[in-house]
Amino acid sequence: MKTVSKRLLSLAIAMIIAITAAVPSFAVNDITWEALWATEYNNGVILFPGKDETEMNVSWYHSEYSEPKVIVSKSITFSDAKTFTGDCIETYDGDFANRATITGLEKGERYYYQCISGDFESNVYSFETDENPDEFSALYMTDIHVSYDKKDTEGINEELVRTAGLFNDITKEALLKNDDISIILSTGDQASEGLESEYKAFSSALAVKSIPVATTIGNHDRKGVAYKTFGNKPNEQKNATVSSYIGGNYWFTRGDVLFLVVDSNNASGIDHRKFVKEAVKANPDAKWKVMMAHHDLYSGRLPHRESENALLRILWAPIADEFGIDLVLLGHSHYYTVTNVLYNQKSVQPYSETMTDPEGTIYMVSGSISRPRDDDDIGLNDEWIGAWNTPDDRQIYNVLDFTEDSITVSSYYKGENDAFNKYTIVKTDKDGGHPDKISPLYNPIIRFIGTIYGFFNNIGVYDDLINKYGFDVDFFEIVF
Ligand SMILES: [Fe+2]
Ligand SMILES: [Fe+2]
What is the mean predicted confidence (pLDDT) over 458-472? Predict the structure, then answer.
């Protein structure tokens, strides 16, 4: 049973979190990472985007099964509060993942919320909706690599605290300097081992209580099984014939931007094309199409990465061409690159500060947060790459400013005020310069072969999880 002093402490921390979320500048001095960790780690409350700007998805962990509830109000006193119920599923670690969706959100409002399941009552958090859903800023980063040190079995895992702390710090800095940010885009390898402890640590960061995070499955997220029950992804693809057992594709919109979040661990071209086609058809008015995937496709640095990327390009480039994707955000290489405008795997327009009505797609990779790379032996293909950076082990974050006519991408080193790289994509109408013809890369046979490969790859993954990692997993769930 909670004591009176514990209740008072909980209330005090709840008030601090509510205030810090409402006034970001308050956060820096008044709540430490250690204090956040102490109250947030076990339950890992995190926001994900809802299907559009009128919804917000919430998720958290708890040790017991119960119907999850989120209480939401425009007032911090929770007058006129609404309650949203959700579902609860058991995780592979024996915890329960709770998920609920807040609906009916209005523009330009601040909402306070609290998560409740069984005897758990979260702190009070808050988030704000955009005044104009077509004009907002996104924080894009990749390869955060929150890492559990398997050799450190005594007490608190220090590497877990340290690496999640890096994510907390960089998101805090980005939000303080850019108060228009209302979504975080993370393109994979959120975790290094794919463990539930790593996703709880990721979710302990202050930013994810007030700004939704769209996560993408990376190859490291697929090392474990916890990503399957982590978070609360909207519009997940349900009709895949061969999916990656813990990942999957999902989409959401913000104003006139369609975000397509795809699983590049899965080679099933049939399923990916079907997913993108259906998402595009469901959003005929979307002016901008932004895809998020993990593997870097065009910035391969090491020889073995280039052979992997060559295969992945065969799979993904035709889909980007066919559906007129404007921007593809990637990760995996930990190496900052922006391509020229590409179509049919060729440069059709050079990278420049402003690219108006590009006749193809721009692919971008950012650096890693806890594993930044400094390597001169970059091995980039000049035919494709328009901008790159050797960060000397510094961390990078990017701010994407969306307007009705443009996307401006500004890339920053942590700790610096001026962007080290900045470019703008302008579209003068809905289709911009995307070619209105079938891409020369369009090839149903390759998509079919990818799907067969995906099936056999899943058998290999099943074997790995059983023999190498010792997870108790279901064959049919993984392979099909
Ligand atoms: Fe990575
Ligand atoms: Fe990766």
Answer: 83
